[in-house]
Structure formats: structure tokens, C-alpha cells
Amino acid sequence: MHDVPEQIDIRTESAAPPADSAVVRDALGVGVAVGLSGFAFGVTSAGAGLGVLQTCALSLLVFTGASQFALVGALAAGGNPFTAAAGAFFLGVRNTFYGLRLSGLLGLPRAVRPLAAHWVIDETSAVALAQPDRRTARLGFTVTGLTLYVLWNLTTLIGALGASALGDTDAWGLDAAGPAVFLALLAPMLSGTVERAVAGLGVLLLLLCQPLLPAGVPVLVAALAAPAVLTVRGYMSRGTEPGERR
Amino acid sequence: MTTWIAIGVTAVGCYLVKLLGLSVPAGVLERPLVRRLAALLPVALLAALTAQQTFSEGRHLLLDARAAGLGAAALALVLRAPFLVVVAVAVVVTAGVRAL
Which residues form a coiled coil (chain A) (predicted)? Predict the structure, then answer.
């Protein structure tokens, strides 16, 4: 079928339900690739001044990569804890919508939901939602979630410990890891004109606000690009919506 | 201490929004406008965060080695490189330009 699992979109169109081994292979591929980037998070977080315990607590308890990178970036910039957390929180809101789509598909018993909820993230959702039926969806969700959780936390620890051994992490270019992760997550979302307009306006607002507003606030202002573009678009046209993937 | 507060608030907030999705009956949040906004919010945030962590240092805007690293990462994305390669390219190119 496909031998290189992409990090977000691993869907292939197939009429017959895939074999369990194929589901597990996809799930492991995604889990391993993204789990390893926990190393980049560990290093970035340590480079931002967080301790090993704090860094590991983030991966264990927050477990949604973009929010974690956003939080340590905001803290490093000297933002107050609540504006820093707000940016991370708004990034995490997309997981609500994954959960909405997953709950029907997975059909989880009430008692399991609080546990499964912790694993509702980009990658587990991408794998589970690509499955044609409940059984393979559950399998994909579980294998991806487990692989990712174990590896993400393990590599976070290694990265956090390794960062102090590396000394000046900037000299190694590791301060570029955070923005590169954001860019890699962003790229597959830029499928339509509206998305590109939102991204462009977000960048513009950020660059305008960064020199003027306290740390943490510019990102929140830039988030207004989303409702702003939707509002303008609402006035301009009532045309057909471009297909959305996420 | 403030760091722990930020970690605690983020952990609780991010967990609750995940749980909300699994718990709320479908349809409550499935209005087209809400869905559309939820899909676009990460686009705005990720774009802003990329720009911030590439072109700023504190309150100052600047163009340094990171811009070269992110340019290389963008190229890697266009060439459909896997996630890890994209991040590695950004790190290596940034370090390389700094070492010049």
C-alpha cells in the first residue's frame, strides 16, 4: 500500500477493511516518527530554562506536542504563566473536535473515556479516522496512542538530559527545532485559500504586535486572524466551502 | 513556581478540552461556523508561532540563522520529506549558518 507513513495523512483509499497487521504497521510508523520528535521537545524545553522534571511533567500530563512547544517558547520569552498557558490551551482546542469525531467511531464505554481522552491528539486521530470500521479504528487508536505516549515521554527525558550535556543548545541550532515543528504541523493545513489567508494574517499580526505587546500576548492577538478572515469571507461570498481535512 | 503554575494550568486545560470532545453528544459543537473556526484557529496560531520563534528575540524582530534553517525546512516540506527530516534539516542548517 504505502511504505512511508506520513505524519498526519496516512489515509489510503481501500474498499476492503485493512488487515490488522497493516493497521498496526501504520500506527507504529506514525508513533515512532513523531515519538522521536519528543527528543527535540526535551532539548527545546531544557534550552528554554525548564528543569528535567518540569519538561517531563509537560510530556506526561499535557501530551499534545504543539501546545508543549508553544508553552516553553512563551515561558522562555518571559511571558506570564497565564498568557503562556492560554496560547498552549487554544492550540489544544482542536483536540476537542477530534474527540467529537472519534467518539462515534470508537464507541468507548463511559469508564474508558477519561483514560482514552488523554490520547486524543493529531496522530491518533489521523490513524483512527482513516480506518473503515470500529474494530480497526480502536486498534489503530490504541497502538498509535501507546507507541506515541511511551516514546514521546522517553525521548523527552533523553532530550532534556542531553541538552545539559550539549551546553549551549543554540550553537547546535536546536532553537530552530520548535518553529520547524510548528511549520511541519502547519504545512498540511494550508490546502485552501482561506487557510493561507489566515496563516498570512496571523504572521502579519504577530510581527506587528511582537515589538509592542508583552510576551505571550502577540500570539493571542494573531489567533484573531481566524475569526477575522471568516468574517470578511462571510461578507464577500457565500460560495461553496473548500473541502476541509481537519 | 510560575513555571509549575503554567504547566498545571496547561495540563488541566488541555486535558479538559480532550475529554470534552469524547463526552459531549455530537451535534452540540458540530455547527459549521464552530467547526470552521476550530479548524482555522490552529492555522493562525501555528503560523504566528513559527514567525515568532523564527524572527524574534524577546521584543526585537531580527533575521538570523534561524531564518535560513526554517527556509530549508520549508523546502524539505515542499519536497514531502518526513516530519523528522524537516526538523533535522532546520536544526542542521541553522547550526551550519551560525558556524560560518
Answer: none
Whose CA is closest to A75, among A105, A103, A101, A55? A55
- Chain B residues whose CB is inside 8 A of the A67 CB are 10, 14
Looking at residue A148, its amino acid is: L
Give ipTM to 2 decimals: 0.89
pLDDT digits (tens, 9 = 90+) for A204-224: 999 999 999 887 789 889 999
| pLDDT confidence of residue B84 | 80
What's the rounded Cα separation, in Å, for the pair B20 and A112? 14
Cell triple for residue B98? Answer: 551560525
Q: How far apart are CA A140 and CA A131, in angstroms?
A: 8
Does the CB of A27 have a partner CB in chain B at under 8 Å? no
Query: From the candidates A94, A106, A151, which should be mutated to test the interface with B, based on the most B CB atoms within 10 A?
Result: A94
Closest CA to A42 of A147, A166, A134, A190: A166
Using the beta-carbon criterion (under 8 Å), do A95 and B17 form an inter-chain contact? Answer: yes
Q: Is the dihedral of CA A38, A42, A44, A50 positive or negative?
A: positive
Minimum CA–CA partner of A112 in chain B: B22
Query: Taking CA A188 as the corner, what is the angle to CA A186 and CA A192, rounded to the nearest 5 degrees?
Result: 100
pTM for the model: 0.78
CB contact under 8 A, A34 and B83: yes
